[in-house]
Amino acid sequence: MINATNLTKQYGAKTAVNGVSFSVKPGMVTGFLGPNGAGKSTTMRMIVGLDRPTAGTVTVNGKRYQDHAAPLHEVGVLLDAKAVHTGRSAYNHLRALAATHRIPVSRVREVIELTGLGAVAHKRVGGFSLGMGQRLGIAAALLGDPQTLILDEPVNGLDPEGVRWVRQLVRSLAAQGRTVLLSSHLMSEMAQTADHIIVLGKGRVLADAPVQDFISGAAAETVRVRSPRAAELGDALLRAAGAGTSTRIEPTGENELRVIGFSAANVGNAAAELGIPLHELTPIRASLEEAYMDLTANDVEYRTAAIADPALAQAVQETNR
Ligand SMILES: Nc1ncnc2c1ncn2[C@@H]1O[C@H](COP(=O)(O)OP(=O)(O)OP(=O)(O)O)[C@@H](O)[C@H]1O
């Protein structure tokens, strides 16, 4: 269990984390989301005592990280996978870490196997790919068999097999009753992995809710409708909604509409009353990504400007392809 109360971090004039309070509960995966610069890494660093809060407190299992006698057994951390002595082998790196807590070499071998590093365990870490470095960071986090895990972007640089492996690993750690705090910018991955999410924006908590509640609460009901009399149905729905509502009707193709702010049942009933035939009526489930983008639209610190020059826009598009 992680408990943050009024946690604040100021770097000079910059307030990176601004009075955040939350708890991360055992037995589930809690996703930690937010645009670049939102304060996620700073919060994680404060949780594990690498940064001192300007104000407020944060505890892990009831104590501040630095007050735990054997922190590796309490909290496993992956913060910066590159922060490893590159001249050492993975095996020696983990052995050195294990020695600080009298963790037996058998456990070192165990985590090497668990993270799929067996074949490269005696190679220099300096030659590791980003993905192998991530696996080593995860191995280090698991070394002390901790009750709480904090993983900052653990799938960064992993191939699809690795991404799936991390997903299964964190799900199984949570199923064992552990507390897992996980940050990632990959929304589709987060949607599959997290039970609960905490969203930060400009140093504040924007949302703290079960994933499903967050998605359904943030996004309006949306329905795709196809009908040979689509325009007529759209007009009727707008009239029924009345002025001043957030209902929107967007034509998306010939005889096709996206209706935002009506349930499929209500659209179907309205069509039946008017005798308008429907060829399709599909509720569209909002994604975590859409809900997240809606929520954080005003809290993005680094925004990509729309490109006004068409030639430049095309060049950028081609580069991105
Ligand atoms: N050591 C530091 N000195 C000054 N400013 C800092 C320092 N560390 C972080 N910041 C600033 O604090 C804010 C929060 O940064 P932080 O790295 O915690 O965000 P983040 O949510 O982890 O972002 P990202 O998704 O890019 O990793 C940013 O504006 C950042 O520039």
In terms of topology, how is this protein built?
Layout: E1 2-11, E2 14-24, E3 28-33, H1 40-47, E4 55-60, H2 71-74, E5 75-78, H3 90-99, H4 105-114, H5 130-142, E6 148-152, H6 160-175, E7 179-183, H7 187-193, E8 196-201, E9 204-210, H8 211-218, E10 222-226, H9 230-241, E11 248-253, E12 256-260, H10 264-274, E13 280-284, H11 288-296, H12 310-320
Parallel strand pairs: 3-7, 3-8, 5-6, 6-7
Antiparallel strand pairs: 1-2, 1-4, 8-9, 10-12, 10-13, 11-12
Helix pairs in contact: 3-4, 4-5, 8-11
Bound molecules: adenosine-5'-triphosphate.
Write up what this structure looks like.
- One of its GO terms (molecular function) is ATP binding.
- It comes from Mycetocola tolaasinivorans.
- Belongs to the ABC transporter superfamily.
- Pfam families: ABC_tran.
- With 321 residues, the chain is an alpha/beta fold.
- It has two domains: 210 residues, P-loop containing nucleotide triphosphate hydrolases (Rossmann fold, 3-Layer(aba) Sandwich); 66 residues, Alpha-Beta Plaits (2-Layer Sandwich).
- Helix content is 37%, strand content 25%.
- The protein is built from twelve helices and 13 strands.
- The protein has a six-stranded mixed sheet, with helices on both faces.
- The longest helix is centred in the middle third of the chain and has 16 residues.
- Bound molecules: adenosine-5'-triphosphate.
- Adenosine-5'-triphosphate binds next to strand 2 and helix 1.
